[in-house]
Design goal:
The complex is a heterodimer of chains A (136) and B (501). Chain A has 136 residues and is mainly α. Helix content of chain A is 68%, strand content 0%. Chain A is built from five helices and no strands. Chain A starts with a helix and ends in an 11-residue tail after the last helix. Chain B has helices spanning 3-13, 16-34, 40-51, 56-81, 90-101, 105-138, 143-159, 165-179, 205-230, 237-244, 254-258, 261-276, 282-296, 309-324, 327-332, 338-349, 356-361, 363-391, 399-418, 421-439, 445-467, 479-500; strands at residues 182-183, 190-191. The chains are: A mainly alpha (136), B mainly alpha (501). Chains A and B meet through α2, α3, α4 and α5 of A and α8, α9, α19, α20 and α21 of B.
């Protein structure tokens, strides 16, 4: 990345400006990152053991949580603040909960409380602008 | 201080809105700090979007209350479950959890509380007496001196973390690079926008900070909870909390407390010095305080086995950083830690630029903040003493219920600042970047600090080059700037050696 950035600084379309130009600090940053990368690379070569990623990398689960985040935002946009929140939070808690009938009342109550709180918070204290949602 | 200024300060600091904000912040801070995985920094980041709706004094009071409360709250989880609720409480685990296992958790919790409050008060007193004179000194600084300060701060912040210096360095400068996205402030030209119009205004401070500090941790915890559910391993802090909450009847006597003054003094002094320096946060203060207290104790062999001194010292140390970490922010506009960065962001959102002129231009607000920081420590003592028996039960809240709510709050709170979907995408992107950094062992705080300091660093550098007619040696010809470079180098070497020990 640092090398690509340095090439971009050298050959890219940068407008000149006072005090060194727009590329000055990016250039310093790219050089600093390149130096750090070279230090890491040299210490990795000298090390006896390889540094490995932790077992059971949570990449898939993290990606799922990130997708939920985007889905939650658009659920609020299209379904409405209260309904979107209730739906998304219910789904999330369901996915994280054991599959037992006793968890359903807790999921519904908590999702309802959350949607009410969010509706009060983001309608009165810090109002948000939504598209014309289907519900409320 | 003239009488009318004093009356204005007290009127603001003691107004019902400010008192309520501080009280709310403290209770919220202790509560979230007690839950492993949710820190005071995360709570502060999540509250940032709502800072817009408050006046400056209540807004800062709320955030500082959360910060102060979080510093103590982390020790509750450290003592009761052996898991630090916040990074600053890591050293408290050493003797705190051992004390609980030895059968006196209540004594340990009260030791932590009193030491935390005294350390906190010490740090704030130092802030009150040191910030204004330092700010007056900083008023004499020109662009060269500020460039030296920013550069030294970034290098020290990156170098503090033993074993991760190169990674911290790369993270800090990557943060500076992210801050360059948008328009060149001197020529108005777009840079690093890749032709995407939304990048023209740059990356927002709030989505980046909330993404790095809060969303990344939440995503990791959600992944962990999901994996535990798949493996039917729902044993969690809630079960530990229920078991832990059973025996809390032991008491701290006055005689026992009197013996802790030396440790508390060591922690308070260490934490104040460490907290005032950029990059050296509560975690380092806690461990250094612990180490010093053990070295100077009359019973060093009891450390690690439930020694009350081993709890008092790190708690006083990490809490003393609360006020001290604001010294470089108020005096120079340089946040000394991730928490100070969040406070600095709150000031900027209120239209107050942290830096040497801040105190002079906003005297009533700044001194009111000093007053609320002082009484906030007393509020922490009173509320935590009353609520301590209940805080240990806070961790019975299961992550599967807490995480979706907190993540939803982060998303909508971020959207509420500018009502643009782009900010939400930046939030999630910063969260994923934070996850990748945490998994690969790259520290997150230097990136955040580089992002905040980047614009100031560029402004100082390019102003210096303009004044020096593009001669780079101009940057080093100032005696003050050269002194800053030398002091920074010495401090970095001392810290790296101390961290190694």
């Amino acid at each position: 990345m640092a090398s690509a950035g340095l090439l971009h600084v050298m050959y890219g379309d940068w407008r000149s400006g006072p005090g060194g130009g727009a590329w000055t600090v990016p250039l310093i940053a790219y050089v600093a990152i390149l130096i750090a990368a070279l230090v890491l690379f040299s210490s990795a070569i000298r090390r006896d053991e390889a540094e490995t990623f932790p077992e059971r990398s949570p990449a898939v689960a993290v990606a799922g949580a990130a997708i939920w985040s985007i889905a939650f935002f658009y659920a609020v946009q299209f379904l409405g603040l209260a309904v979107g929140t209730f739906t998304a939070v219910s789904v999330a808690i369901f996915m994280l909960s054991p599959r037992q009938p006793s968890t359903w009342p807790k999921i519904v109550v908590l999702a309802a409380a959350t949607s009410l709180s969010f509706w009060l918070l983001f309608s009165l204290l810090a109002p948000i602008i939504l598209r014309r949602p289907l519900f409320f | 201080m003239p009488f009318d200024l004093l009356s204005g300060v007290l009127e603001l600091a003691l107004s019902p809105a400010v008192i309520l904000a501080v009280l709310t912040g403290i209770v919220l801070g202790v509560t979230v700090g007690a839950i492993p995985g949710i820190s005071g920094d995360m709570a502060m980041a999540l509250l940032l979007p709502f800072v817009f709706t408050l006046d400056p004094a209540p807004a800062i009071g709320l955030l500082m209350g959360v910060y102060k409360g979080g510093l103590f709250g982390g020790s509750i989880s450290a003592i009761m479950f052996g898991v630090p609720g916040t990074p600053g409480a890591a050293a408290t685990v050493l003797d705190g959890y051992a004390a609980k296992q030895a059968g006196y958790p209540n004594k340990a919790l009260h030791t932590g509380l009193y030491a935390s409050v005294i350390g906190d008060f010490t740090g704030v007193l130092i802030l009150v007496f040191v910030a204004a004179p330092l700010a007056l000194l900083a008023l004499k600084f020109g662009p060269r001196e500020f460039f030296a300060l920013y550069l030294v701060s970034i290098v020290i912040i990156a170098a503090i973390d033993k074993g991760r210096v190169a990674k911290g360095f790369a993270a800090a400068w990557f943060g500076v690079l992210l801050a360059m996205i948008g328009r060149d402030p001197f020529s108005g030209a777009e840079r690093l926008t890749f032709g995407i119009p939304d990048f023209g205004a740059g990356l927002g401070l709030i989505p980046v900070l909330i993404g790095l500090f809060a969303v990344s941790e939440i995503l990791l915890q959600a992944a962990r909870t999901w994996q535990e559910r798949l493996q039917n391993r729902e044993q969690s802090a809630s079960e530990l909390a229920q078991a832990a909450a059973r025996n809390t009847t032991d008491r701290l006597s006055w005689r026992e407390f009197r013996k802790l003054w030396r440790s508390i003094g060591i922690g308070g002094a260490t934490g104040t010095v460490i907290g005032a320096l950029p990059g050296a946060g509560a975690t380092l203060a806690g461990f250094l305080s612990y180490g010093l207290a053990q070295r100077l104790s009359t019973t060093p062999d009891k450390f690690g086995k439930g020694s009350l001194e081993g709890i008092a010292a790190p708690e006083a140390g990490n809490s003393a950083t609360a006020g001290a970490t604001l010294i470089p922010l108020f005096a120079f506009g340089i946040p000394g830690s991730g928490s100070a960065a969040l406070i600095g962001a709150a000031f900027m959102m209120q239209g107050i630029s942290p830096g040497p002129t801040m105190i002079e231009e906003n005297m009533i607000i700044v001194y009111a903040i000093f007053v609320l920081l002082l009484y906030g420590s007393l509020f922490n003592l009173a509320t935590s003493t009353l609520l301590l028996p209940h805080y240990a039960k806070i961790a019975t809240l299961e992550p599967r219920f807490v995480l979706p709510v907190v993540l939803g709050l982060a998303i909508l709170g971020t959207y509420a600042t500018k009502n643009t979907a782009f900010d939400v995408w930046v939030l999630v992107g910063a969260g994923l970047l934070g996850v990748a950094m945490r998994i690969t062992g790259v520290p997150v705080a230097p990136l955040a600090l580089g992002f905040i300091l980047g614009p100031g660093l560029e402004r100082a550098l390019r102003q210096s080059l303009i004044l020096g007619h593009n001669d780079w040696s101009y940057l080093f010809l100032s005696p003050t700037a050269a002194s800053i470079y030398i002091v920074g180098l010495v401090a970095m070497i001392l810290f790296m050696r101390a961290a190694r020990h």
